[in-house]
């Protein structure tokens, strides 16, 4: 049985009085991709925020390779090996591409690796990040997360707002990371992309786990997809 790189165990999470996550449990196998799916407002980003430490669970726990991390500060969780590609990219617009990468570096430099992964970023290394296209900013957000050499990579809507050709490029990058053994939680509204990359799928509905299982069990289940995701 594969090692669990990340596990959520009965997590309840609240924003003020708003109860968003209700006893959410799932596990990510080492070197695998788990697609976390759901309609808008289902609790996907709240899950990510809880894992990275922006939001502390009211109940339950989060484990990284068996180690409890749920009540640690975000910077400590990051140093322990969880990287985040945030929704909306959030690059530093007034810094150059290279500076955006170097501020996230941890341990031996991975600059050569991310420039090999994204040659376009190498070409624009001295360009301000705010002048990049949306697709290039997404590449930079992924590269920046990889600079920390994460053991688990959280990706929140990496294809959002991108042209189809760039979506395909992002998909190829994620597939390569998976082939290299990277453990990934992928939050994604592009169901076709998510199904093409994922080993397992977890579907949230109003903050509860509505489905958890292998991608093959859900990919062609029209009624399940329509009920919980509203698309097919």
Describe, in plain words, how this protein is organized in 3D.
This protein is of the alpha/beta class and 232 residues long. 34% of the residues lie in helices and 28% in strands. It is built from 9 helices and 10 strands. The radius of gyration is 17 Å and the shape is globular.
Ordered list of secondary-structure elements with their pairings:
Blueprint: E1 4-15, E2 18-29, E3 33-37, H1 44-52, E4 59-64, E5 67-68, H2 74-80, E6 82-85, H3 97-102, H4 111-117, H5 119-123, H6 134-146, E7 152-156, H7 164-179, E8 183-187, H8 191-197, E9 200-205, E10 208-214, H9 222-229
Parallel strand pairs: 3-8, 3-9, 6-7, 7-8
Antiparallel strand pairs: 1-2, 1-4, 4-5, 9-10
Number of strands: 10
Kindly report how far apart the N and C termini lie: 32 Å
- The secondary-structure element order is EEEHEEHEHHHHEHEHEEH
Estimated structural class: alpha/beta
Strand % is 25-35%
pLDDT averaged over residues: 91
Strand order of the largest sheet: 6-7-8-3-9-10
Residue share in helix:
25-40%
Return Rg in Å.
17 Å
The total of helices stands at 9
Shape: globular
Main sheet record: 6 strands, mixed
Show unreliable segments: none
Sum this structure up briefly.
This protein has 232 residues and is an alpha/beta fold.
Question: Keyphrases for this structure?
Answer:
232 residues; alpha/beta; 6-stranded mixed sheet; 4-stranded antiparallel sheet; 34% helix; 28% strand
